[in-house]
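Could you please review the protein record set out just below?
***
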Amino acid sequence: MISTSTPNIYNRSLIAVSIAIFSVIIGYGLFIPFLPYYANILGATLGLQVGLMTSSFMLTNAIGAAPLGRFSDRFGRKLIISIGLFTYAISTLIFPFVSTWIHLVILRAIQGIGGAMIWPASRALIADITPSGSRGRALGFFNACFMLGLVIGPAVGGAIQFYGYEILNLSELESYKLPFYFGGVFSAIASIIAIKFIDEPKKPSFSPNSINSEKENGFIGLKKQFHATFKLILALRFSNGFALSFIQPLLAFYIHDVIGLERTDAVFWLASSFFISGLIAAIIQIPSGKLADERDRKSIIIVAILVSQIFTILIPLSKGVLIIVILVGLRSAASSFYRPSLESFEADLFPQRNRGKLTGITQTASNIGSVMGPLFGFLLYDFVDVRYPFYFSALIFIISAIAFTLFAKNPVVDDEY
């Protein structure tokens, strides 16, 4: 989409919601690397039991995203975001006081609900307060803050746990509890920022004709000519979730089983790989957001996905761990490059009165892909061929991207229908 003007989009609400997300994601990242070990100490002896924690978060997040997004349409973005951040803060502070791994599953399910309040409403808020033609830059800035938090959080969390165990001489169990306190504080700060500095966007007024039009458009709340486009977006979101979720757990096995590294060495290289790829993804959001406002977004999406999946296909063809780390970094850069383009495309397509709900539905599609990715990936890895998960993931992502490029209609910006 070609922008004819460059208004200042860095208003108070955009900066506030981006800083709030940065804070809560740091808090999230502080404890995520140690959560499996913490669960193991609390009695989770099977991989399935540890996996239930991830599944419980994804399940409640997927179920809650659309209805809670709809709540933000009806009751306001700021209220839902603030409640979600507060829910996340309280649940994080409870983690150190639980006595069994089952409690961790319940708390992760609660955090999934909190996340379902935060993400659709936050993206809808940014679309509400930013004019079309500038939404790529606004969403790129928001994504950069999110990804920086995701990179910084685990590093800080590791330092906190190390300090507690090695310097303060805490037991292993108590050292794992320490990052949760800091994580809860970061999440609480995020909720305070949201309450104090986010301005509720003004809701548009709607004529009787626009209300009748919404009834005619049914549950989706889009004009009928965009129903197929919405389905193509859901397919793309599903493929994105599938492709991103399988790579991290699968690479750990691949580097150990195929490349031949010891587990301790594999952990080091994996940590380095995801730190570098996360940092690259964060940095690239700003220029890619600007490009989304100035160029054809469908072209950016298809090129970025094709390039990223070429790197995905090359990973199992590589013989050395250093090459794999480089390929994962390049894959992350390419796959993250299209995010502002797709998100601003969605923001222009979704009318303000239904934007939270529709954004939530796209998040649900992504979460379903995130749940299915590791399951199908490991089935192929264990019973077919260790390389096939990479090829299959690339195939479905490329097919959905081509279908979107060929058949999706460019949105007509109109918040009055």
Remarks:
- Residues 135-167 form the longest helix (33 residues).
- The chain has a mean pLDDT of 87.
- The chain is about 80% helix and 0% strand.
- The CA atoms of residues 351 and 415 lie 4 Å apart.
